[in-house]
Design brief:
Elements: H1 4-24, H2 28-47, H3 52-64, H4 69-82, H5 89-109, H6 118-149, H7 151-163, H8 168-178, H9 184-199, H10 203-214, H11 217-232, H12 236-265, H13 267-299
Length: 300
């Protein structure tokens, strides 16, 4: 009888677990509805950002942050030039600015890294407020540089497409599709032009928006040339070919200018890093020998 007690306890526990699982198991219809709901909203859940909670906190901070009306326009343009076109991008940027400022202030005013210093904490507060703007300007500059480097290939494809018989709108669309892998930033801008033209905007306005979004001087000159060509009815292919040659001349001149600046830029690393090491290697042994010879003489 004592040997049967563990077996009976095991059977009773197994029956209890099975009954609880059966009681809490959803019905067939409920399971099917849940699966259909998962399949229907699966893509929407995949498209949501990974850090939804953090973005929500940044939005709340950005909504409460003080904003200057004069600064909003320039910041929104800078965000667009950096590649951030969503409506909440400006609010998230203000949230990041406030978070960085408060984070540096709390870090420097506490004893986590060093002795608390109020003046240093106030300096960190100002630095945290300015640093996101500097990073954003750097990102916009890098994106503009990548677009500038891709203009030559875009112009070559535009010339080929226009001379093959395509209109300017169709040529811009085709070039955007061809450059999507090599130059995604420029392809994105050309795709935006296509969407604006389909929405009913005039071609001149869509091209001006392209120049404003990119912040590239060469692209602004190209937009001005295309608008004038469309207005006066001249040959688009010939104008593009002439501008392509002009752009390549500018690129060669920029390369020559950068090569001429290399000598001046190399002075500072040479003076700070290389010359002291050369001085130690060449003069160091002589100085040591000089000291070894003169020290006994001085002691006498």
């Amino acid at each position: 009888m004592t040997m049967m007690l563990p077996l009976l306890a095991f059977v009773f526990a197994s029956a209890l677990v099975a009954a609880a699982g059966y009681a809490f198991m959803p019905g067939r219809a409920v399971a099917i509805d849940r699966r259909i709901e998962e399949l229907s909203i699966g893509r929407e859940q995949e498209e949501k950002p990974r850090f939804t909670a953090i973005i929500g906190v940044l939005k709340r901070l950005g909504n409460r942050a003080p904003k200057s009306p004069k600064e909003l326009g320039s910041l929104r343009l800078r965000l667009v030039q950096a590649g951030f076109r969503r409506e909440e991008a400006l609010t998230i940027f203000f949230g990041i600015r406030v978070l960085f400022a408060l984070g540096l202030f709390v870090l420097l005013s506490s004893s986590v890294l060093m002795k608390p210093n109020l003046m240093l904490a106030l300096g960190g507060l100002g630095l945290g407020y300015i640093l996101p703007g500097m990073v954003l300007a750097r990102m916009a500059k890098r994106r503009a540089h990548r677009i500038r480097l891709s203009l030559a290939d875009m112009l070559d494809l535009l010339v080929v497409s226009v001379e093959a018989g395509l209109g300017l709108d169709q040529a811009l669309t085709r070039v955007g599709n061809e450059l999507a892998f090599a130059y995604p930033e420029l392809a994105d801008e050309l795709r935006m032009i296509n969407l604006e033209l389909r929405a009913g905007k005039p071609r001149a306005e869509a091209l001006r928006n392209l120049a404003d979004r990119s912040g590239v001087d060469d692209l602004s000159s190209l937009v001005t040339m295309l608008i004038q060509t469309d207005k006066f009815g001249t040959s688009v292919a010939q104008s593009l070919r002439v501008y392509s040659e002009t752009l390549r001349t500018k690129r060669r001149q920029r390369a020559e200018e950068a090569a001429a600046k290399t000598g001046v830029k190399m002075v500072f690393p040479l003076v700070i890093c290389i010359f002291p090491a050369v001085w130690v290697v060449t003069i160091g042994p002589a100085a040591i020998r000089f000291v070894q010879v003169l020290m006994p003489m001085a002691q006498k």
